[in-house]
Specification:
By secondary structure, this protein is mostly helical. It has a single domain (about 5-329), classed as Rhopdopsin 7-helix transmembrane proteins (Up-down Bundle), CATH 1.20.1070.10. Helix content is about 75%, strand content about 0%. It contains 14 helices and 2 strands; from the N terminus they run H-H-H-H-H-H-H-E-E-H-H-H-H-H-H-H. It has helices spanning about 10-20, 20-50, 60-85, 95-125, 130-135, 140-155, 160, 190-225, 230-265, 270-280, 285-295, 295-305, 315-320, 320-329, and strands at about 165-170, 175. Strand 1 (about 165-170) and strand 2 form a beta hairpin. Helix 2 (about 20-50) packs antiparallel against helix 3, helix 2 packs parallel to helix 11 (about 285-295) and helix 8 runs antiparallel to helix 9 (about 230-265). The two termini are about 40 Å apart. The model is unreliable at about 1-10 and about 310-329 (pLDDT under 50). It is found in: Cell membrane. Pfam families: 7tm_1 (PF00001). One of its GO terms (cellular component) is plasma membrane.
Length: about 325
């Protein structure tokens, strides 16, 4: 993201990036791989979650929400691939640019908030089972939480919906999409600070801390209860979620904040690193199906049936329905 307001402010590093064929090719290849895995993995996941998994517990509702955001990203990535292969030349107009950029960032932050919600659901089911059982409106709360997530993310990202994110670069004969971001998108430096603070701290750092607290508490509880198989699965789930945060979300959000501060106040740039981190952030949509596998017994069973792996673990066989509902949604 560049904090430029006119084409004369484009520095040599930025122009060099747009002419760097190798970087563009690497990003395109990563997007192609992600698109294929995303559409296949999440297409199978949404079919299992919607039509082969019952009942629709809060965890399943959150997983459906997460899968839908991933599929939206997978549908948008081919446009980004075309843009990269054309040398950063956007030909689909400003409205389409704004829409696809919104899809890109909505996926990231809705995924973060949804993983937090799944973590809270696991925490209540394992660590606070009495509170969990007493709440008879958990499904309604889950649906409302999903709507609240979308409302919060779209509210924060509202400037992306109302701004022309395209930028003409006559010296290269291209029109970029969200690669040169005008300072005029927001009226003041204070508004920019609030925008960046909300994205990085409210939509990333706070959910990350809550999610890690929930999974650490779950692992500690299962360890004290000596439920070895449940503990192992909880640990695997925590590891996958941690990988998604550390590999996909953390670099992008940290570089977004650092690059924006350098650009706004010091006229320096980390744009190349930020561009690559934005690319790797899409990998979350490939890892999310592993979250479903470790978080839902029903999902595991149906997937094994599809793959002709009918044998269940001993823990899955002897676990009571009530315990499994509390743990695996």
């Amino acid at each position: 993201m560049r904090g430029n307001s006119s084409r004369t402010q484009l520095d040599n590093a930025t122009l060099s990036l747009f002419q760097n064929v190798n970087t563009s090719s690497v990003i395109s290849v990563i997007y192609m791989v992600v698109t294929v895995i995303n559409l296949v993995g999440n297409g199978l996941s949404i079919w299992l979650l919607l039509f082969r998994t019952s009942p629709k517990t809060p965890s399943i509702i959150f997983m459906i929400n997460l899968t839908l955001t991933d599929l939206a990203l997978g549908s948008a990535l081919p446009f980004q691939i075309s843009y990269q292969l054309q040398g950063y030349n956007w030909t689909l107009g400003s409205k389409m640019c704004s829409f696809l950029t919104l899809v890109f960032y909505t996926n990231m932050y809705c995924s973060i908030l949804t993983m937090m919600a799944i973590g809270i659901d696991r925490y209540l089911g394992i660590v606070k089972p009495m509170i969990f059982r007493k709440n008879k409106r958990r499904k309604s709360i889950a649906v409302f939480s999903c709507l609240l997530m979308w409302g919060l993310v779209l509210g924060v990202l509202y400037p992306l919906m109302t701004t022309d994110l395209t930028f003409d670069i006559p010296e290269l004969g291209i029109t970029t999409c969200f690669d040169v971001l005008k300072k005029s998108m927001l009226p003041t430096v204070g508004a920019w600070a609030a925008f960046l603070f909300t994205m990085v701290f409210v939509l990333f750092l706070l959910p990350f801390c809550v999610t890690m607290f929930c999974y650490v508490s779950v692992i500690y509880k299962l360890s004290s209860d000596c439920k070895t198989v449940q503990k192992d699965r909880a640990i695997r789930l925590a590891i996958v979620v941690l990988l998604v945060f550390v590999l996909c979300f953390a670099p992008n959000n940290i570089l977004l904040l650092t690059h924006s501060i350098l650009r706004l106040f010091y006229n320096k740039s980390l744009y190349m690193a930020y561009k690559l981190s934005l690319c790797f952030s899409c990998l979350n949509s490939c890892l999310d199906p592993f979250i479903y596998y470790f978080a839902s017994k029903d999902f595991r069973q149906k997937l094994r049936q599809i793959l002709n792996l009918h044998s269940l673990s001993s823990a899955d066989s002897i676990r009571t329905e009530n315990k499994e509902t509390l743990y695996s949604g």
